[in-house]
Structure formats: C-alpha cells, structure tokens
Amino acid sequence: MPEMSLEEYYAEQDERLNRADESMDDYVKRVSRNKNLMPASSVQQHSAALEVRQEHPTLTIPSVSGQNATISTNREIGRATKRKAAEAEADALGPIRRQRIDPEHGLSHAVDNHLPESAPSTHSRSDSLHPKSPVTRTSPKVERNVSPAMDDIESFTIDEIDVPVPASTSHNKPKDIHEGRNTRQFAQDKRRFRQVRSPQAPAASTSELSPILSFSNKSYRKPSRSPKRAPLDLGPPKRPRLDLPRAANILQATENQKSTDLPALEPPLSPIEDVSLEEASAKKPLVNQSSSLFLSIQERIAKHSGGAKTDKVLKLSKKRALPDFSLNEVAVDLGNKSSSMCVSSSPSSNPQSPPPQKKTKTSKDNQEPEPKISAAKGAKLATEQRKGKGKKEKPAPITAADFARKLKVEFEEAAKASGKKHRRSKFLEGKNVFFSGGDWNYASESTRKKMTIIMQCGANLMPEYDPEVTTHIITCAPSVGAMLQDLKLKSLKQIPRRIPTVTWDWVLTVLDDHRLDRQEIDTRLENAVIECTPYAERLDLYKFESYKPRPRASRSVSANSEEGRTCENVSRPINAAASSSSESNDERLAAHDVRHSAAPISPPISPTRRASNSTASTRQDCKKSIDPLAEFYDQARRQKEVEDGWSSIGDVGDSDSDETDDEPDFQPVARAKKGWTCDNKQAQMSGDCPNEDIINKLNELMELHKVKGGSEDRWRVVSYSKTIRALRNHPTRIRSGNEARRLPGVGEKTAQKIEEIITTGDLQRIKYENTNDVEVIRLFQGIYGVGRSIAFKWYQAGCHTLEDLRARKGGVTLTVPQAIGLKYYDDINTRMPREEARAIFELIKPKALAIDPKLSVQIMGSYRRGKADCGDIDILITRPTDDGETHAGVLPRLLRELHASDILTEDLALPEDPEDLEATYRGLCHLPKVEGSRQRRIDFLTVPWTSRGAALLYYTGDDIFNRAIRLKANVMGYALNQKGLFKNVIRDPRDRRIKLDSGVLIASETEEEIFKILNVPWQEPHERVRG
DNA sequence: TCGCGGGCTCC
DNA sequence: GGAGCC
DNA sequence: GCGA
Description:
Number of strands: 19
Helix content: 40-55%
Catalytic activity: DNA(n) + a 2'-deoxyribonucleoside 5'-triphosphate = DNA(n+1) + diphosphate
Radius of gyration: 32 Å
Strand content: 5-15%
Family: Belongs to the DNA polymerase type-X family.
GO cellular component, one term: nucleus
Shape: globular
Keywords: DNA damage, DNA repair, DNA replication, DNA synthesis, DNA-binding, DNA-directed DNA polymerase, Lyase, Metal-binding, Nucleotidyltransferase, Nucleus, Transferase
Structural class: alpha/beta
Main location: nucleus
Distance between the termini: 41 Å
Largest sheet: 5 strands, parallel
C-alpha cells in the first residue's frame, strides 16, 4: 500500500509549494527539491535510512551486534544510511507510483502558504487577543496580506490560515457516560491487552484498539486520580460510538470516505452548549498542596533538623564573633589621608550619607536573638574563624565608604611594613577613583574585593564621590539608580563630562590583558565612557522609541571628551573585531565584549548596540545628542526595587584580599555574573568554536553524569551544561583554567578540569567515570519511559543489549510505553527533518479545524524555534471563548480521527481527563502512506484560551530559556508555569519549592505580556535558543 | 549549607 | 509516591 | 558543580 518514498513525498510537496508561492524559497526546501544541490542532504540520508530500514523486516531496529552493544543501533543505521545516501544519489527516481499521499492535499495546499520554512519571523501574531473570525473556507488560494516573514513559525492560528474546512458541529460535549469506564480504564485495558502480546508482534491496526477511540463517549467526571478504579474490562475497547448525532455524522462521514475528508457537512451549531465547561476547568486548583507534600517536607526538615538549624545559629554567631573592623579603626586615619578614593554601594534606601555607626548594626543583626553557643560550638567557631581567615566569613557590616578608608590604611601599612608589591598592573595609579558597588550602606564582600583590586591597581580609592576630586568612576551597580545613590546624585547628567565612567567589567578586561601598556590603557580609559547604555538592556530602555543607544558622546556621563568624539571612537572596537584588525588590543577588547554578551554591563560597547546591526545602530547613535535616559530615571528607580533582588552583576571571586595580597600569583578571579540567561537574545555562536575540544570533553563527562543520574550527578549535568554554553559563546580560545574560571557558571572544579584538558588534551575523569554499565544504561535510557533507575535495574538483571530486552532476558518486564519505546527505539531517537514535522502537522491541522473551525492549532517546540530538525512535534490546541464555546471534547475526537487515518500509531500517555480543557497526550505518529516513514513522537496539549500565552511560552522553550525565565520570575516574586504568571505567590520559607499560596494570575494570555512584566526583552521563538 | 522548575502521567 | 517526561 |  505505501506507494511513495518519503523523498518523493517531499518532492511532490515542494512542487506544490512552489506552485502556490514562488517566493517561498527556503533553504531546506530547495535542498529537498533538488537532490543535486545537496547530495548528502538530510532528506536523502533520511530516505536512505528508510531503505536501510526496509531491509529489516517488521521495521524494527537492526539487531544490535553483541560486541558493539551500545549505541550501535544508531551507528549502524548511520553508516548504512550514508552508504545508501550515496547510492540514492545515483539512483535517480525510481518508478514513482504517484498516488496521492493523502487526500488532504487539497487542504494542506492552502495551509502551505503559511507554513514557516525557516526560523525568523518578525513578530508573534499568534497571541492576538482578538482573533479574527475564522476565514471563510471558499478560497483555496490564500490571500496573503501578510508578509512572508510574518507568516512564519507562529502563524498557525486559524485566523491566518484559510483552510477549506467543512463546517461542522461545534464541539459537542458528549453527554452520556459510557458504562462507567473512564479513560484510564481504557488505557489500562489497552496496556493489558498489549502487554499480553509481544511488542514485536505485528500489531493489529492500532486504530482498532486504541482507547482513544472511546474518548468522546465519556463525559467523565473528573476522577482526580481516585484510588478506586472501576473493574477492568479486558476486552479490547470497542469501536467508538459518538453520542451526539452530528458529531457522529461527521465522524462517520470522515471515516466512510476513508479520510477523503471535506464532506460537505452541516453548518456549525450555534447554540452555546455548555458555558460552564470552562469554569469547571478553571476551578481546578492551581496548586494542590497535598498533605503528602507537607509530610515529605517535614520529613526533610526532620532529617536536616538539628544540623541545619544549629548551623544557622552558628553562622549568625560567627558573624557576631567576627572582629568588628569598623569605623573606629578606620576613622582614625581618615584625616591623614588627603587621598581621594571613594567607594560606594548602592541600592539601599538611604542614599544620604548614612551614619557609619549604624552600619555596623544592621537590622539583621538586631533581629537575631542572642546566640546561644555551647562551649564546644564556640570552640569550633573559633577554629573556623582561624582557619577561615581567607574563608568567607560574612563580612562585618561596614559601609562602602568606611571600607574604602580602612582599605587605604591597610594598604599604606602593608606598604610600609614589607614594601610588598602587588603584581597587578598599576594602571589606575594616580587616579582618584570612586567605586559604585550598588549598595552605599553596605560594602558586600564582592564590593570589598573589587575595591581591594582597584587599590591594588594603584588607584586612589575615594570614600566619597566628590566631583572636584574624583577623576574616575568605576561602577558595577545593578542599575542607574543604584549608582546615582552611591554618587548622591539625582541624574547622570550631573556627572561632569571629564569624569570617565567605566564598568567593573572594563577593569577586568584590562587586567585580563597583560599586553596592554599603560598608555594604551589610559587612552582607552579616557575613551571608555559608560554613557549609561550598559544599563539600557536591563531597563529595557531600548524598547522605547525615544531611546537609541548612543556612543559615549552622551552628556550624562561622559568622558573628558572633545565634542567631536562620537561614533567613530565608540564603534572602534566593533569594527576592529569585525575587520579582524591587526590591532590586538581592540580585538581583545571587542572579544571580551562579545564574550560577555550575556552581561548587562560590559564595556565599552553596550550589549544593546552589539546585539543590533552595528553599522545601523551606530548611525543612529550619532544622531542622538540629548540624554536618552533622563526620562527613565523614575522608572529606573522603581525598577531598582526589583533589581535589587537580582543576582548581583559584579560579584568578585572568593579570594580573600587579606591573604591573597601575599600571593605572588594572585589573580583577580573576578567575574561578572551576567544577569539572566533569558534576557539576552543570543544568536548561537556560529561557525567554529575555538574551544571545541574542551567542549567535547566536558560534554562527554556530562553525558556520563547524565547517565549515572544520581542526585549529585544531576546537578553536575546542569553545571557542566552551563559551562559548555559559556564556552560556546566565548569567541576566543581559552588558554587556562584561570581564564575559564572567569566565565559565568565556571567554578573551581570545572576550571581545573578545563586546565587539564588544555594541558593534557584529555580528561582522566572521563575514563574514570566511563564504564561498561554506564554505556549500557545510556543505551537503555534511550527507550521512552526508561530512566536511570529502570535502566540500572535491567542492567543488573543481566540485560546488556536491546536484544536482551527484546528477549526479556533475566525476566525483565516492560511497561507498554516502554515496549513501544523499545520497538521504535531507533525512530524515537532520531530527529526528524523540519520538513517532516511540517508535513505531519499539515495533515493534522485540517482535521482539527474540521472538528471546530474556531480552534487555534499551533505547533510549538523546536519547530517553532525554527530548528532544522525536530525531536518531536508539539501541538497546542485551544479555542477562543468569545462565542461561549470551548475546545472541550475536541482532543478525543481529533485523536480518534488521527488514529483512524493512520497518522497516530501508538499512544504513550493519555490525558487523564480528555474532556478537560487542559489535557496532554503523548504518542507516536507518522506520515501515512509513505513507505517506511518513521514513527515520530508527538504531543498534543490543550489549554484554556486564557492560558495560551503561557503555554506557548512554556512549550516553545528551549528548556534553558525556560529555566532562566522561570527563575527570574521567581526572584522577582512571581511564579511562572505553563498556566500563567502569578504574583503574590507565597512560598514556604523552609522549602521555596512549596507554594503556600498560589497567588494571583497576572498574565497568561500572550507571551508578550509575560515577557513585559518580567522585563525580558521580546524574543522571537528562534531567538530563545540557549542550550 | 542550601537550592538548583514544575506539573503531568504511569505504575 | 517514586519514576519518568516535557 | 556552582553560586548565594
């Protein structure tokens, strides 16, 4: 019956596309259209792979050879695939028996126009709050009043697609209860039924058996996982019977026509059927705090109890016990020094010079009850303190200014005493530097370190900012407002132009580059002016029309610049980098800048400007001459509240200044943390990565930990992946562990490993971790539904290959999803070409719209992110409720039809309540009637119309981006999940994961509003790639 | 020393 | 309620 | 393993 190869299918499809719209000339499509253009194209490989597979009866995976029992399946396929691909090239077109792939071609034709071919799209339109009424179904050829760029990835909503859809009944909610059997029972039936049979056995048409078929028959009162289940009916589920005549008509018609579709059916039912539907679903608690959760918490608390709590007390007391190196000591010498170093920190409330004394007693301290420390503990404490010296005690509260004074004294004494010199470049010598750390009232450890380093660089650190004396400002304040507080100014404009203001990162850059000579640094310093653009991104200013990031000609915080210095100067580093200038310094500077592209603050080029087309933006920059920030100060201040909760942006490493001063090779292991991953659009570094070898090794190690999957391993994986990401985005070759250490997310241990890789080219740890069991477990974990523990269990049972599993060696048992996963091991672990995802979606969407033309059906996941290949297909279904109707009940019907038309082949997980507005389905699908088409993972997700934005955001990912944005929401006091963004979420202080109050929904309808509230610059789906 | 996402289904 | 998935 |  299958008459056409996938390749042919694509070819034909492309032909159609071509006819429909000549302008759609996407790369991938061209590739698939013309073999000769790309001999080894994925399409070819793919089809070749299909051929290979055909050599294996029953479409199962090629057997795994004993010796090479690991990933051999894929590898074998891969090799054979390549062979075949070569053959395929020569092997022109075989006899093409043109049979229509699918009668729906006519349908999908129209859809074609709107199918995204490539990543970029201009803006999401899918989230429109005001969906147009569904287009009429008359015109087969779509009027495209949307630019090609517009109708991209996200444009799958019905309001943009003109698909000839049969009018149908509105979704009818099945009214009767089908013999009390709920879905789960059906699922179980099916499981049992299937389990009896060997997974390999040629399955009877699954559509016959699918429990899906019975979905719509139950109006299913939400059982909420009631422990009791109705007695099982072991017989195969019966053929579905739709209760509602109209629906039945449609279905029958559809089926009768053997998916010829488009039966001219009756017009939609108008009456609102069940308005309560949505409300019902809304009633579902957002968070259920099952008592079990609390129990487990209690358990955990109990477990840690003594230790943790005592520790806390200890810590506090430790703090107390610390020698209070406060003002008293410092104040003394204050007078002597006419020098002018100034330090600040900012965001706190009182910008007005706070009385120093107060500082030493923070409110925190006051809160603490008098610590009761046992003698033993006290002793321990003392020990810790002794050895701790370098080891991070909480810094005694001290203001930045006071610390600066103290520092000065210390430096002088040290100099007198031993004449010891820091090896640090003295490039700040003779400069009166005011440092703004972001919190005037409290010199954090990080602030202290930075100040120390600044001193070591020869600066005259000023305790306070005095425009008459201060010659330079260095800042790592998290916001403009914070810095202004440090400076005790109201506006950046008040900073004289002659005072260059640079960010802390800039200092690092200089320290980093030993090749710089003094003069160069000076020149650079004078040229590097903050001009507040570094803050722009954080404040989202660039989103405002009136603000255009501008070179430092800014009046606000500017250099001692002559008027003429404008764009040229500022854009220099960019240009240098772009033109691979021979001027190494610029190159390096630029490189540094790029490397920290994730950093909100990274001089001298603003990230904003960097992100955009440099020439264009530079041009614009030149036009602006008034302070673009002025109007945003208020906003900045307001924002500060939020930002203060951010991870600081300028934390220095841990090395303790007191001690490290003596170390000859003390390096400023200072690193700027980079704000939120989700905030920075970052095009993946293209081209060759100079650190590929390091990445590979780390990746290897990461994979090993992934397989091991212990609780520790889990976080190692997270950690390594962060490092790998950082390395990927690092434009230059990392030359030492120390250098790597400076990247965000790279800690001591990872830096050591990197060092090892750099010096030896290898990583011993890999060999150490890599054992046979790991390989096998990794193999098994590729099976759907198999994680580490099950894989390990099987390994222990004596299974070492997939064949072993198939033979149920050692008496292992597989659940139904696992059996399916094993059966299609190869398919499921192979990514599909984007084309194929599109083709499948094209088949599905019209079927959904046939059920209800007002449905919104969107494809999400990696497809929406524009990836060239997709691991699975995620489809979001929802429906506007303005007419009082919902999509309840649509999913089961759709699934049934998809089974009937052989698109869906296997179910992996069924929604608990398919009638719910919110349901999830997981299964396998393929292109029907395409010979050897692979089984692909597919997920359906239905959500209430009001949550569509959150769901879209959530399911579009990528996962790294998701984590980042969730975390940011979290820190900002919100909670983000696939249902929406919530505020006033109250979390259990003992376990922040526990929500005591699920809060108030503040956004969920569109992605944009969520981005906006979280202050994340809007990013198109394809820009959300982080992993 | 603690947290590192959160919600769902399967069994 | 642990395991697994997304 | 990292960072607070």
